[in-house]
Write a structure and sequence with these properties.
With 467 residues, this protein is an alpha/beta fold. It is built from 15 helices and 20 strands.
Length: 467
C-alpha cells in the first residue's frame, strides 16, 4: 500500500485551461547571433514574417546550401564575426556563453537580448511544458512528449534538445510545446509563462562559463521557477533541498517527485505512483518494466508521469508510455551483453552528478570507463561513490588526474591513452555477471566533437568485440 502523499494531489489539466504566454508583436529589426541550427531556424522564421533580419556568425563561410537558404529567404548575412546592429532585438545562440565578447556586445548594442525559447513563447499560442536541471532533462522532456502523444495531444519536444520549437509554429496539429531549456537560454528568457514546469536536479556544471561561480549557475537554473505564475504547476525533485527552497512569487501549486515519502509522484518498492486529485493514489507502472536502467531513471519516470498528467495526459496512456519509452541514445543504454557481461553507454554523463546517478542505480560493482575534457568541476564527492561502486576505474582524457586523485592511491585505477584502449582493457578484465559502464563525468571535447560522437564510437567498439 503506498504512503499517503503529504503534498496536494495533482490536478489534471487540459490544452484549453492551461496557462500560456501572452502573445507579443514582433519587432521590426532583429540581429541573430550564431548560425547553428537554432540561429538558422530563427533567421528564416523572422524573415518569413517580413521583418528585417541580420544574421551573423564567427565563421567566414557557411555551407553553400545554408547560405542559399538564408539569402533566398531575404536574410542579410554578416560572416567572420558576430555582429549586432544598434537597437535591434538580438536572438542569441545557446552556444554563445556568458562572459564572451559576443555576449557582452549583444547586451551593449541590442535593445533586448532574448533566447530562441523566449521568441517561441512570444509567438506560440499554445501551452508550454518547460523542463530544466543539470542532468536528466532531455530524458524527462522526451518522456513527457511520449506520454502526451499517446494521450492524443499534439505535443512536440524541442529547445535545448537541438531542434528549436520555432520550426514547428506553423505546423497543423501542434498544440503543446515541451521545452527543454538550458541555463544559457534561461538567462535570456524573460516572459515565458510555463503551463507546467519541472526542475530535475542541480549540480555544478558549465562553471568555465560562469566564472567558476556555482551560485551564478544555480541562479540561472532558478530562473525557471521565477518565471512560474500562480497558475503554473511546478514539479521539483524531492531529494534536492536547494531546489525545494527556491521561492516563487504569488504562490501556486508545487509538487515533489522522486523516491521520498510524501511526494506527489513517487516510486515505492517496484511500484510507480501518482497522487491524483481525481482518483487518489494511482499505480501507473513498475520499475522493473521500464526500459531504462537505474534508480535515477525511476525518478525521471515519475517526474515525467506527474508533469504529463498535469498537462493533460490520461492514466492509461501514462501506464503504456512508461513501459514503452525506450529513452534517448547515450543515456544508460545497454549496448550489448557479451559473454554474460553487460556493456552500457552513458556518454551523456558529462558531470560528476550524472555519473553518480548511473552508478547508484546499478546493482553490482562496475568496471567504469571515465574521463574527458576539463570544465572546472570538482570530483571529490564522486570519488566516495567510485570507491563504493567501481571495481576498477579505467581513465582517459584530461580529467584523468582529478578522477584518480578523487579515489585515492589504494583503489584499482588504470590510465589508458584512448577510448579504444579502455574498451580492449575492459574486455580482458570482466567475467559473466559484470557490467562495463562508459560514464565519463566529463565533457568530450579533448578527444571527440561531442558526447554523441564519443558514445557512437564506444558502441562501435563494443559491437566489434568478438563473441
Amino acid at each position: 500500500m503506498p504512503t499517503s502523499p503529504l503534498h496536494p494531489p495533482i490536478t489534471r489539466g487540459s490544452t484549453f485551461t492551461l496557462p500560456r504566454t501572452p502573445r507579443v508583436a514582433l519587432a521590426p529589426r532583429y540581429s541573430v547571433l550564431g548560425m547553428g541550427r537554432t540561429g538558422i531556424s530563427v533567421a528564416r522564421f523572422l524573415a518569413s514574417r517580413g521583418v528585417d533580419v541580420l544574421a551573423s556568425d564567427s565563421r567566414t563561410s557557411l555551407e553553400p546550401a545554408t547560405f542559399a537558404l538564408l539569402t533566398t529567404a531575404g536574410v542579410e548575412l554578416a560572416l567572420g564575426g558576430n555582429q549586432v546592429r544598434e537597437g535591434d532585438v538580438v536572438v542569441i545562440s545557446p552556444g554563445i556563453a556568458p562572459g564572451t565578447r559576443a555576449y557582452r556586445d549583444a547586451h551593449a548594442r541590442g535593445a533586448e537580448v532574448i533566447s530562441e525559447p523566449e521568441l517561441f513563447a512570444r509567438i506560440f499560442d499554445g501551452p508550454i511544458v518547460a523542463i530544466t536541471g543539470t542532468d536528466g532533462k532531455s530524458t524527462v522532456t522526451t518522456w513527457i512528449e511520449h506520454l502526451l502523444k499517446l494521450s492524443g495531444i499534439g505535443a512536440v519536444a524541442g529547445g535545448n534538445l537541438g531542434n528549436p520549437l520555432i520550426e514547428n509554429v506553423d505546423d497543423d496539429g501542434f498544440e503543446m510545446g515541451v521545452l527543454e531549456i538550458s541555463a544559457f537560454q534561461l538567462i535570456t528568457t524573460h516572459s515565458l509563462v510555463p503551463a507546467v514546469a519541472l526542475v530535475t536536479n542541480l549540480s555544478p556544471d558549465h562553471l568555465d562559463h560562469f566564472g567558476g561561480d556555482e551560485s551564478a549557475y544555480a541562479a540561472a537554473k532558478r530562473r525557471l521557477v521565477e518565471l512560474c505564475t500562480p497558475r503554473t504547476t511546478l514539479f521539483r525533485t524531492d531529494s534536492e533541498p536547494q531546489i525545494l527552497g527556491w521561492s516563487r512569487e504569488g504562490g501556486g501549486v508545487s509538487h515533489r517527485y522522486g523516491g521520498m515519502e510524501g511526494s506527489g509522484a513517487w516510486f515505492e518498492g517496484d511500484g510507480l505512483w501518482l497522487a491524483t486529485e481525481e482518483h487518489g493514489p494511482v499505480h501507473v507502472g513498475r520499475r522493473s518494466d521500464l526500459q531504462l536502467v537505474g534508480i535515477h531513471n525511476a525518478v525521471n519516470a515519475v517526474g515525467a508521469a506527474g508533469a504529463a498528467y498535469a498537462a493533460g495526459a490520461g492514466i492509461e496512456a501514462i501506464r503504456e508510455g512508461l513501459r514503452s519509452y525506450s529513452g534517448l541514445p547515450h543515456r544508460c543504454t545497454v549496448v550489448r551483453t557479451r559473454r554474460g557481461v553487460r556493456w552500457i553507454n552513458d556518454s551523456k554523463a558529462t558531470t560528476p552528478n550524472a555519473t553518480a546517478a548511473a552508478l547508484t542505480g546499478l546493482e553490482v560493482p562496475v568496471v567504469l570507463i571515465a574521463g574527458g575534457s576539463e570544465k572546472g568541476l570538482d570530483y571529490r564527492a564522486l570519488g566516495v561513490l567510485l570507491r563504493r561502486h567501481v571495481s576498477r576505474l579505467l581513465l582517459i582524457g584530461e580529467t584523468a588526474d582529478a578522477l584518480e586523485q578523487s579515489v585515492g592511491p589504494l583503489h584499482p585505477v588504470e590510465r589508458l591513452p584512448s577510448l579504444e584502449a579502455a574498451v580492449e582493457r575492459a574486455a580482458t578484465l570482466t567475467v559473466a555477471g559484470d557490467i562495463v559502464l562508459l560514464s565519463p563525468a566529463s565533457a568530450s571535447f579533448d578527444m571527440f566533437e561531442s558526447y554523441v560522437a564519443r558514445g557512437e564510437r564506444f558502441e562501435s567498439l563494443v559491437c566489434a568485440l568478438p563473441e
